[in-house]
Amino acid sequence: MSPATPAPQSGGAALELLVHGVGGATPQDMLDDPRTVRITGDATAAMHRRGADLDAEDHPERYAEQPVPEAYCWSNLTSGNGTRALWLLLLPFMVANLAHWMRPPAGGRRGTVRLYGVLVRLLALTLTVLLTAAACEVALDLTAWQCAGSTACVVDRSWLGFLAADRGGWWSQPGRRLALAAVVPVALVGLLWYLSNRTWSAYEAQRPPTGYDDVATPPPGTPDPEGEPRPRPALGRPGFWYGRRLVARLRAAHTAAGFLTVAAAVCGAAARHDRESGSTALAALAWTLEAALAAAGLVCLLVVCRRGRSEKRVDHVVDRTLVAALPTVSLILLAAALVYAAWSRPGWQSAGTLPGDATFGVLVLSQGALVVALGVVALALYRSDPDPRTAMYGLGGPAVAMLACALGGVMTGGVAQRVADWLDGPGTPGAGGGRIVGPPVLLSWQASVIPVLLLVLVVPCAVLAVRTTLAARRYAAAVDVDYGVETPDPVRTRRIASTRAAAGLTDAAPGLVGIVSGATLLLGAGAVAGAWSSGNVPGRAFEGAHPVIASAADTAQATGSWLIGFGFILFVTWGRRAYKDASARRTIGILWDVGTFWPRAAHPFAPPCYAERAVPDLTWRMSSWTRTTGGRLVISGHSQGSVLAAAAVWQLPAHTRRRVALLTYGSPLERLYGRWFPAYFGPHQLRALHGEVHCWRNLYRATDPIGGPVRVPADGDKPAVDRDALLDPLVYGRDHAHPLPEPVLGHSDYQADPAFAAERTALLDRLPPALPRQRSDEPADQGGSGGRGPAEGHGSSEGHGSSGRSSG
Asked: Where is the composition biased (Gly residues) (predicted)?
């Protein structure tokens, strides 16, 4: 070790690392300077400084009054370009992945925790099969089997002429039509595989470099030089943000399941024909193929049920044989099914629907059973360590899983209904009497329950509206007391009180989600029962019922069908608008900022986890800067940035955490994450973070709909984390210091409050004095540049013109 030059025992270098929240921010806005320079990072996520602060570490005397500001911009991880709008189609997968992380704390029940993970992964697998089955329904059943087999349907669609059954072409046989149409669902599965593989490589494959253990927490059992207890919290484990092995394994299983679903759809119709025609050889081949498909499907289930994430260590090992073999075997079986279906069968005519209509009923029943089982497991976990702040008494995960299934059903049903309506012309999908038979009858029943679900939602929405109005009236008196107003302005008071009341709607979200999920489960069960009672015969969904009930059901089915179609069209339109409109793209980015914080542990086709890039970035920067300069550091996170900041602090080694202060504001750490993800941000975890970090302060407002208190009490000589709620607006009316009315800021502009600078200064004052700084000729730390490393050098192309970030 090279000798170090002594530094003053007070003051010294201090850095404020700013992390923005949802929706993104530019470095110019964060640093309040048009001249900013990217000092380390790339176009996706990077650290920025003002041009005047590049050599701040060499002149600490200039920054005696305030720390050097440095901004970490990560918005391009979630909303960088228009193609991200396509991720809207992966919304059910993302919601299912969230359900994995919403489990209650383990309470020592490791086996129950593993069972919870297995159930969520199985439910995620059903969503992949559902999406593939819907693509098969549209391409194989409605188009190739029904429409191409109907002269009336083909006559108005010349592009289907070469498939027409009455023209006697090579493709006119039903099996060959199905084999050709299978290109559509196969391409869909291939696209999902490609996106999952590409996004993992681009965003999440941040392989820890040599010397990772110098920055991240070592595995449990490793002696801590400062005596820190083990085991570490989940977010502090070395492998938490590196789930390569599980993602690769699940990607192989889901890809294989998709290909096997297509193979079963193609093979099923030909197998039914061969058994009915009495062809012994082809029937035996059909049995062999179907047995092979079933065996491969069983292997997919076993792979999905295998042990989940390994977080205690950085797992570099990938099951390469399994990952490569499973999709390959499924492709071979798919090719065999296509060849089998395309075999010449003169005289075979397509009639009715494909034999796979029952698939949708099996999927819906399976999803319902998995959600119920997940609820039982979640309740068992919650009772082992109950906390009244936990959302829905631990049932948040099952409820969100039910919403994922509902989203998948609406999206797939909407596509099938709209395509059937388009092909059928003047007919009504599923009503019979048209050019085609229509989609499975279950989709008609599912459409009929949607208006009922909307009517059910009217009641809780009306209750919330009344409660908010009454709360605003109660808050009016509190507003006047908070500001000490002698002659209140009713309009001003009403506006502030209404904003506070509206911000409280966030806390009502668990109840609303519970009502929607419960109603969806019951109505879905009713739809399955209705489809079963009608014999699963398309066009006879409501036969046998009382005339009044049948009429109401038909009206509900027609209304629901159009609502599904309208919703899907709106969905696609929003995606197209986001591709062209930066503001809409930013709105979608906010959705992903909240929904894709967590790694892909249940569904490999979910949008990528940006935190697997952002958290290591922050961890490396804090560790390398404090090691190189010996200075004090406060990491300042707003909104979602506070969650990233807390996760990064958890990953720091103990000696670095004790030189870091945490400042959070507008933070959803307890209000959202603590309630919905109690196993990771529950009260025990937040109190542990308070004990590990040197000092922590949290700011919030009563008018903030997202941020709130973290509810961590004082611990020995450490004060409580929360400061009293900040007044918003800063002043009630006009005065000499504020001659114009101050706005109600809500969730934004916390730095505008003088309390922000005061709390930041207090945190820095509580940090230990600066340590002696390393000599400039010492080798740079592997984790990143501190002081003036190559990435921060003057004249570096990385930091100036070529980066495109040198000026605003």
From this structure: 783-808
Show the DSSP H helices in 222-319 as ranges.
244-277, 280-305
Are residues 570 and 473 part of one domain? Answer: yes
CATH code at position 638: 3.40.50.1820
**pLDDT of 219 above 50:** no
548 and 523 both lie in a single domain: yes
3-state secondary structure of 696: strand
Q: Which residues fall within 8 angstroms of residue 570, CB to CB, at 6 or more apart? A: none
Nearest of 522, 514, 491 to residue 395 by alpha carbon: 514
Same domain, 554 and 629: no
According to DSSP, residue 27 is labeled H
- Among 560, 595, 630, the domain boundary falls at 595
Is residue 402 domain-shared with residue 452, that is, in the same domain?
A: no
125: amino acid identity, one letter: L
What sign has the CA pseudo-torsion 569, 570, 573, 578?
A: negative
Q: Kindly state whether residues 206 and 284 are assigned to the same domain.
A: yes
Domain span holding position 115: 108-217+248-313+326-427
Coil vs helix vs strand at 634 = strand
Last residue of a domain, one of 370, 393, 427: 427
Query: Which DSSP string corresponds to 3-20?
Result: --B---SSS--EEEEEE-
- In whole angstroms, give the CA distance from residue 709 to residue 668: 8
By the 8 A CB rule, do 175 and 343 touch? yes
Encoding tokens for residue 687?
A: 């109190």
pTM, 2 dp: 0.87
Burial 226-261 (b: 16+ CB within 10 A, else e): eeeeeebbbbbbbbbbbbbbbbbbbbbbbbbbbbbb
For 312-352, what is each residue's pLDDT tens digit? 777 777 777 777 889 999 999 999 999 999 888 887 888 77
**Contact partners, residue 438, CB within 8 Å, separation at least 6:** 142, 420, 424, 427, 429, 430, 431, 432, 444, 538, 539
b/e code 731-744 from CB counts within 10 Å (16+ = b)? ebeeeeeeeeebee
Is residue 436 included in any domain, yes or no? no
Annotate 391-445 with DSSP letters as a single string: GGGGTHHHHHHHHHHHHHHHHHHHHHHHHHHHHHTTS-TTSSSSSS--S-HHHHH
Geometric angle at alpha carbon 589, from 586 and 595, rounded to 5°:
155
Q: What pLDDT digit, counting tens, does each position of 663-672 carry?
A: 999 999 999 9
* One-letter identity of residue 201: S
